[in-house]
Amino acid sequence: MAGIPRSVLITGANQGLGLELVRQMAEGPSPIRHLLACCRDPDGPRGQALQDLAKRHPEVITVMQLDVTDLCSIQRCSQQVGSLVGVGGLNLLINNAAILLTGTMQTTSPEDMLATFNTNVLGPMNIIKAFLPHLCAAAAASSGMAAMSCSKAAVINLASLMGSMNLAPQTYHIVPSSFSYRVSKAALNMLTVCAALEFQQSEILFAALHPGWVKTDMGGEGGDLEASESAGGLIRVMDSLTEEQNGAFLNYDSTPMPW
Ligand code: NDP
Asked: What confidence tens digit (pLDDT) does each residue in 65-109 have?
């Protein structure tokens, strides 16, 4: 491993994979200084599990309000993160929050398509832009380290095999009613590639990671993996990333995914 990130921010951290990533990072051997666990309603019932986890690790976890579709919420969160991390910046940003609305192309309304893009594509884009100064600060503060890593400055976008155009002929008939989600995750893949190229000089690493088919609210009971197994794999992949994987699309077991 290239080192340990001092500060990590995770969106959609109140349930599913996001909550499990926070739990494993807080309880793992790596001494993360700031684990910034974001969710859209931290004080509501959906934020309870995260609040309980944060109470067990008050020195590490900070629960923050962040609705990825709300620019004001994103800007406010970015300012708060700046105050917390200071000149050390933000080492690792994990764009995990997403929605899956059911529908084929024929049954998907323009409103559902826009809602899906707002959360799954514009959300990560606006968050990357708002947190860029903190990522750049982290890259500058770690200038003595190897060129790129998640402990220096990186953005991980939670991608999906459903966004893979190469795999669509195999996966389409298994889940035909996820049209807007598929298109949004394909767009997120291109966002990842463009960002990797645009911010290469700033030494910020970008990667799209598929977590497997996971038993969460989104993945359902039929999933192949428990959230703990997937999150453990994702953390191992993040630990191993170098500049060679900048812009890559990888599975939770680190094997390359077909675009
Ligand atoms: P869940 O549905 O269990 O969790 C999604 C999270 O995103 C929730 O915390 C939810 O918050 C949050 N969220 C949704 N909209 C917003 C918003 N506007 N602002 C802030 N947070 C929001 O999904 P998973 O944990 O299964 O998925 C995590 C990631 O992994 C997603 O990007 C998903 O696409 C990807 N993925 C998952 C797979 C699976 O099999 N589970 C397979 C492939 C990819 P709230 O509780 O408030 O709704």
From this structure: 999 999 999 999 999 999 999 999 999 999 999 999 999 999 999
Any ligand 1 atom below 6 A from CB of 221: no
Select from 3, 11, 117 the least CA-distant residue to 64.
11
Q: Ligand 1 in contact with 5 (CB < 6 A)?
A: no
Length of the chain: 259
b/e 75-102 (16+ beta carbons within 10 angstroms → b): eebbeebbebbeebbbbbbbbbbbbbbe
* Neighbouring residues of 110: CB distance < 8 A, sequence distance ≥ 6: none
Q: Is this complex's ipTM strictly greater than 0.90?
A: yes
Question: Percentage of the chain surpassing pLDDT 70?
Answer: 99
Find the radius of gyration of the CA atoms of the chain. Answer: 17
Q: What is the pLDDT of residues 156-176, one digit of tens each?
A: 999 999 999 999 999 998 888
Ligand 1: residue of 181, 218, 253 to mutate (most ligand atoms within 8 A of CB) is 218
SS (H, E, C) 46-104: HHHHHHHHHHHCCCCEEEEECCCCCHHHHHHHHHHHHHHHHHHCCCEEEECCCCCCCEC
Ligand 1: centre distance to CA 19 (Å)? 10
Q: Determine if ligand 1 sits within 6 Å of the CB of residue 94.
A: no
Q: Could you list the beta-strand ranges (E) of the chain.
A: 7-10, 34-39, 61-65, 92-95, 154-158, 205-210, 248-251
What is the identity of the amino acid at 180?
S
Whether 156 and 92 have beta carbons less than 8 Å apart is answered as yes
